[in-house]
Amino acid sequence: MDRVGTPVANMVKRNSVGNGSALPHDPSRLLQRVEEERQQLADVFRQAPAFMCVLRGPDHVFELANEQCFQLLGRRDIIGKSVRQALPEVEGQGYLETLDQVYRTGESFTGTGMPVLLDRMPGEPPEERYVDFVYKALRDADGAVSGIVNVGVDVTDRQRAEAQLRESEQFNRSLMDGTADCVKVLDLEGRLLHMNAPGLCAMEIDDFGPLCGQEWEATWPAESQGDIERSVARAIDGEVSSFEAYCPTAKGTQKWWEVTVSPVRDADAGRIVRVLAVSRDITGRRRVEQALKDSEERMRVATAAVSELLWTNSAEGLMVGEQRGWGDFTGQSREEYEGYGWSRAIHPEDAQQTLEAWTRAVAEKRTFADHHRVRRHDGEWRHCSVRAVPLLDAEGTIREWVGVHTDITDRNRAEETLRQLAAELSETNRRKDEFLATLAHELRNPLAPIRTGLQLMKLAAGQAEPMEQARSMVERQVTQMVRLVDDLMDVSRISRGTLELRKERVPLASVLNSAVETSLPLIEQMGQELTLTLPGQPLAVDGDATRLVQVFLNLLNNASKYGDRGGHIHMSVERQDADAVVTVKDSGIGIAADQMPRIFDMFTQIDESLEKSHGGLGIGLSLVKRLVELHGGRVEVRSDGPGKGSEFVVRLPIATSVATPHESGDDAQQPSVAPRRILVVDDNRDGADSLSEMLQIMGHETRTAYDGQQGVDMADSFRPDVVLLDIGLPKLNGYEVCRRIRAQPWGRDVVLIAVTGWGQDDDRRRSDEAGFDLHLVKPVDPQRLMQTFAGLQIRKR
Description:
Blueprint: H1 2-19, H2 27-47, E1 51-56, E2 61-65, H3 67-73, H4 83-86, H5 95-105, E3 109-118, E4 127-139, E5 145-154, H6 156-178, E6 182-186, E7 192-195, H7 197-202, H8 222-236, E8 241-246, E9 256-265, E10 272-281, H9 283-305, E11 310-314, H10 324-330, H11 334-337, H12 348-364, E12 368-375, E13 381-392, E14 398-407, H13 409-459, H14 464-496, E15 504-507, H15 508-525, E16 529-533, E17 540-543, H16 545-561, E18 568-576, E19 579-586, H17 620-630, E20 634-638, E21 646-653, E22 677-681, H18 685-697, E23 701-705, H19 708-718, E24 722-725, H20 734-743, E25 751-756, H21 761-770, E26 774-777, H22 782-790
Parallel strand pairs: 16-18, 22-23, 22-24, 24-25, 25-26
Antiparallel strand pairs: 1-2, 1-5, 3-4, 4-5, 6-7, 6-10, 8-9, 9-10, 11-14, 12-13, 13-14, 15-17, 18-19, 19-21, 20-21
Helix pairs in contact: 13-14, 14-17, 15-16, 16-17, 19-20
């Protein structure tokens, strides 16, 4: 009892010194009370639920320890021993250092969940325990630290349970994160508590935080919220339910989900504490299902569309049972097509080879493919493509054959039409290429003598006769080039339907005489003889005199070019009923039978060999045919073959009365032309200068400009009566020059004439809209220009 008596003696001493009072009159009662208190303290110490021990001195000697302390340490022989002696295994675990610090400083220390290794079982490895404890310093009467009281609780079981719980939670999270499904944990109110990482990814959610605590139902489209509400309610009632629903992701990706909702129970009472929802992305599956559904629907529609040609045969290749498609197509009854009776609907020329190929395919168990003709129910033979495949069972034995006949008659016809079109296109391209080559040739032909003539005129300067010969030659060649271009323009206008005829009552004799007169130089050059036979009574037609002369001139030139040198050409006119019939017959090379059908086609030439080339673009006869048809007539060609000449017959409707023929322009007296002030504007300097010089020789005063802006400036200073204005000019085009001149007060009375290489109807319309008075196409005939000037009414300014 010395361990207990010492503090009591100290207490008695403190009392006597502290208040100066005397000791109690009855010391025995005082000792009794002290003993009672000590006993109570010992009972509390022993019965305390926590482990407790008192350590004395700097070596931390165990003075007191309760039962819980003995159980924790796994030993009882610790009283009177220092911690180092009683528990050598704690060396190096930090506890001795902590005790030393508390004893040295007097400051308390608290440890929570501290691990300690103890040799609780001799011969066994140290056992790890976890404790919550407090080291509290004990002080003597002088206030000095004399010991340490250690009070704590063994929390090993709690720590292990918490560790197991953490492992379980981590395991569950690993399971949730290890699945590709979207896993959500809900409370019993249907609010979101957790979502796994793959689920966040699948839903394209960057942060779950804003969703936590929200109602799961609200994250779905309105049409699916009813399913969500019902499934959560059933889970709370202990049922598992599932459904499929559409819900886009947070970023709008369209997805379908298969959702399973189930209850989560606690481990002890089995109470439902949470709701688990697992959503599986089935978008791909739905697409496959939809694609399969669409495919089946297409197959159903396709089968219905071609059902008249579908059929099945037995494993032996015999047609058995009801074959409505075959029967409807061929008109055969069931009795007629059963067995091999179907072969009687195959064309006799195809039936034998079809049967032989079919029996081989059946014997070899391979796909059958063939083409043959089948008699349709209306008796027409139709070309069909047939294909049949064997259906095999698991052992590889043929169960039946499934086949289809496809009527390809229309396709064959379309392919034949395409082949014909391709051939025609190829022929058109060939003739186009030939035409371009011929055009280049025909345009180069006049250029050679023109160049030679110009050189001759340079060398023969001052010699009248050579100069006149050169001039005449150049004039003829330019006339030829102009005629080629005019023919091309006429063909283009006719093709587009824009050629206008200036019809009047025209005596046919004057038309033919003009054509003969124009063609005579070529005929005389060839040394040929031309006879013209006219009827006793004059005939007239309603037509465009210029175009009709063009028709018969082309026929005469054609007869001369393809006629023999020194040969004969005969032109005759007669009346047949209501038609005037003009025949042009020659003794030339003739026309082969295979050329007759295309003689009036564009770009066709009768003789295409180089050594017999007669020139021309191959558009003359096509132009003749189209012009005659525009006059309500028709043209025919006849020939007995190569070397036997040819005959062209033109039929034109006769006019009801004959008009008095007008005097031709050539016979009329040329009007006199007063001198004019003329401005020539053209960026082709040679063309502008030569035209200006020619006009000066004719007695006119001229100025020349070479671009649009210069033309406007010179017109303002020169104040011309007439402006000959090109359209395609630099700086300002001819249309703009015309508008600017017209905008000036002095420019309203100027005669503006477009002189351009553009001669289409649209070009003439644009020049008229810009304010031009006339539109002339290059090269302009000087005589035509003189006639134009003579007819101008120059307004006085």
